[in-house]
Design a protein that fits this description.
Elements: E1 6-9, H1 22-36, E2 39-41, E3 56-60, H2 64-75, E4 91-98, E5 101-109, E6 117-122, H3 127-130, E7 142-145, H4 202-206, H5 225-237, H6 252-264, H7 275-281
Antiparallel strand pairs: 1-7, 2-3, 3-6, 4-5, 5-6
């Protein structure tokens, strides 16, 4: 498929209007001078044969580029399009709109050297009869035709690739019957049915009850099952013991036997069964002791 594009290139020209009056030319020059902080002055002697008798000149202490930028920023809406140049931008020109028509504005270096830039303002050439800028400054619009061709590109979609069929007996997994174990599943190792026995706390493993109070000889005798348990354990640890059972009363014989046990097991000899003595008494590591001599 082909498309033909037409591109029109039009040269910018000032619109047709009546010729500005000398007063309007001067007003345009004053306006330019106020925008660039310039000085309205006589034109150089070399300009005697240039333009009309109504021409005005403005001197500015700025470069040509600086003056152009300032005018574009301040009176750009009244300028006729872009700035133009015929000498590699040593000078540039444009048209400035006034109530009576367009005036010609050219910027160039001051030939007299009194200022850095000279602004030349005048009625455009041939404006008296046509009311437009000079024909040489506004060339006839021309139309150029460019032919461009665009080719339609068709992108073919690739055919989907089918996966290759598995080959060999190993490619097909063996069927698994319902209810049977998977061929890759490994039987769980048999668990030891005998639970491991944690290390027993010596005091808890031999004491028939927890420690709840300090046992000692008092004026009013203490009794209870904890005293009986302590007496039975003391009988077990007594060397050459004749056996027997405790009566559950904490008397002088029990206190003397406790002192003998404490001395044999490196405990403070107090005759009282506190928590430390209770723990050592029911420990599997408890040492035996000789029966005390009781008067």
């Amino acid at each position: 498929m082909r498309f033909i594009a037409l591109t029109c290139t039009l040269a910018l020209a000032a619109p047709a209007s009546a010729a500005p009056t000398p007063v309007q030319v001067e007003q345009a020059a004053v306006r330019v001078a106020s925008k660039i902080d310039g000085v309205l002055r006589d034109c150089p002697a070399s300009y005697t044969k240039i333009g009309t008798r109504d021409k005005k000149c403005v001197g500015a202490a700025l470069t040509v580029e600086q003056v152009r930028s300032k005018l574009s920023a301040t009176v750009g809406n009244d300028l006729q399009g872009v700035w133009r140049s015929r000498d590699s931008q040593r000078s540039v020109y444009n048209w400035l709109e006034t109530p009576g028509g367009y005036v010609y504005v050219r910027l160039q270096a001051d030939p007299d050297g009194r200022a850095q830039t000279l602004v030349y303002v005048d009625t455009p050439p041939n404006s008296a009869s046509a009311g437009t800028p000079a024909a040489s400054a506004a060339p006839t619009p021309k139309v150029t035709v460019k032919r461009t061709e665009q080719a339609r590109v068709t992108i073919a979609r690739p055919e989907p690739v089918k996966p290759a069929a598995p080959t060999g007996a190993a490619a097909k997994p063996a069927p698994v019957r319902q209810g049977s174990a998977s061929p890759t599943a490994k039987p769980a190792p048999p668990q030891n049915s005998t639970p491991s026995t944690p290390a027993a706390n010596p005091a808890q493993s031999l004491a028939p009850m927890p420690f709840t109070r300090v046992l000692q000889l008092q004026e009013r005798r203490m009794n209870g099952s904890d005293i009986r348990a302590a007496q039975n354990r003391l009988i077990q640890l007594t060397e050459d013991s004749r056996g027997g059972q405790g009566d559950g009363w904490y008397g002088p014989v029990t206190a003397a036997t406790v002192r003998a046990f404490q001395a044999a097991n490196n405990l403070p000899v107090t005759g009282r069964i506190d928590q430390a003595t209770w723990r050592a008494l029911f420990s599997p590591a408890a040492r035996t002791f000789a029966a005390p001599t009781i008067p």
